[in-house]
Amino acid sequence: MSIEIRHGLRQNWQQFSLLVLVNAFVGAMIGLERAVMPGFAETVFQKQGQVVLLSFIGAFGIAKAFANLAMASLSKKYSRKMLLLVGWILAIPVPFLLIYAESWSIVVVANILLGLNQGLAWSSTVIMKVDLVGEKNRGLAMGINEFAGYVSVGLAAYLASWLATEYGYQTAPFIPGIIFSFLGLLITLIWIRDTGHHVKKESVESRIPLLENVFIDTSYRHKTIGTVTINGLVNNMNDGVIWGLLPVLLINKGFSLTETGMLAGLYPAVWGLAQLFTGKLGDTHCKKQLISTGMLMQAAGILILVVAPITVLVALSMILLGLGTALVYPNFLSMIANHSHPTQRAASLSIFRFWRDSGYVFGALVAGFTAAVAGIPTTLILVAIITAAAGLMSHFRMCCTNKTIWKETPCLEIY
Q1: CATH code reported for the domain at 13-204
Q2: Is the pLDDT of residue 410 over 50?
């Protein structure tokens, strides 16, 4: 008995919901570490914060970026479900390694495995959702996906912090990771269905031209896809800079630790929640305008942060950063999906995610080198200028494919 293959969020809501749940577990795995790793390192291994930051970026960030890149070639040979399963298999040892680690090198190995898990599993769920929903609701689908992933990061971080406070850093904070990884693996193995048939059906109907060279075109050459990739790298670069420098900047301005924590948390909270609405906005409005507007809002938020002397203005800068990031994040993914041939979509999305996540490494380098040479305010001004330039590039180089209240530019030239 053959199964009817249909595209659409409503038509595939059961599989889509399971993929959202699986992605929430993916986000929760990293959430456990982000909250307690500095305290875990200092308490258990007597490692200072700077060593932890460098180790985390080196082990986790690079591993995740290259796992995303590997998806570009692996997706041609293996099914989406198989790669998602591999991602979860790599996650299984992570909490056990952290619980029983006798040296910091074991923690680094765990972070490498976690990075591979994040790259393979998160990329797989994104690609499978895009396969299921079709073009009409891709923005909404990506908004829901990113919302679920990043909210679960926050909730897991809170859970790990509470467990560390109540029971110490040694074991308790990582026990939920055992549950998350096994549930993710079992749900994928038993209930998740591969989306290969959806890709084959869409390939027959698609009129999107094939890219000449998927890596080069996705990285920069394609007017729309390449510009999205450049903006994605810049977005995560400024996020990495803010992540590293915001606490220091606010403390230097005289804010208390409590105020600093609350203000730093406002940015990702707005970012996560707003994606439920900004993703859907991309289904009805010109995505390039949403992306350019979002990047310019981020630049404005960073500049306000530089001069903000009072809590209200810092909060305003955090809200602008959150809203700006929410405007671009789900629409990056849906824009690439809409401009990629179905048979090349997985590769393009994976290459985009490689460059986007590499932005954190660039951000760490910019934050460390420029701040040491020229100071934090100058560093933030430089990052704001780069962010604004990327936003203007998206306005002048990209095109629209959907009817909108803004003037539509036909996508006739792709190079």
Answers
A1: 1.20.1250.20
A2: no
